[in-house]
Amino acid sequence: MMSWTFHTRTQGARRRPTKQRSVAEADRPRLTVIGEAFIDLVPLPDPGSYRARPGGSGFNVAITLARLGHRTAMMARLGENAFGGVLRSHATANGLDLDYAPRATEPTTLAVVGLDREGRASYDFYLQGTADWQWTQPELARLPEDTAVLHFGSLASWTPPGSELILAAAARRHRGERTLVSYDPNIRPGFLGDPPHARAVIERSVGAAHVVKASSDDAEWLYPGAPLGEVAQRWLTLGALLVVITDGPRGAHVFQPELPPVHRPGREIRLADTIGAGDAFTAGLLGGLARRGLRTPDLLRRCPPAVIAEVADEAVLVSALTCERVGADPPYAADSAWSAPPRPLTPGDLSFR
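-> structure tokens emitted (353 positions)
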């Protein structure tokens, strides 16, 4: 008989509390993430045993941003049950601002993780009637007014009933031209139907974003047989200013309007697993833009391509280091990473606690 042994662990518990942050960190621009926060049940070596770890694409992005030193607000509907408490404790330990995260009465979403022999993750989700999708207009109206960068995406952006309200909130900020809006579809084919239906859903969100990050697997499933450059050009035509498509160990492809595509190489690593790798990349990308002051659509439009390539390299680095850890456990940035003027992050700027 299979036994289910759940081990919980809050990573990064030695992170200093928010109230003890330096004045410099408190003065940094606010980055806000809207998305899901759930529990990943990660398999242990003992068959039938799992470790319960905080997860969810939006949650992983927010945790990574906070560990990289950014002032980060997480807007997720966190349940009042035991797993909701695990998520809140993990968020607080990592310095996330939960003032804008609604308290939900619904249960916490669960994802059972499967790992193949190469450490690549797959997921079985238990999300019927759970907290992450039940957004209301008043809850989303709490989005911080001083948000400089807004990120949304993944399951919460295309799972009803809350997905329409999330899209509307992102679109309002996009139209205002004062907030840099980011989107990552993070495709899960089992929940999106067939590619034609999914394309219509995803492209609406692409049209509400300035920065779009996706994986090559996302692009290939959405647009079967289409070259990555063709997919990126379609999204640029919809209004994106920067499209980055990750390509696993091969790095990432960067696309901007009226500029030739740029490839940024991957890094050699000792792979533990790929859980949270794409989310770490997203956070590295957005964090790199924010750290350089590229926090409005106009500034992004005028940014030199060499700087964008530099930011993409940072995202590759953050993602690569995350892949060397079990589960979604991204690195921390040293205070030296916030030097002025901004400089490229190096492995020496990042560490684990």
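The longest strand covers residues 49-55.
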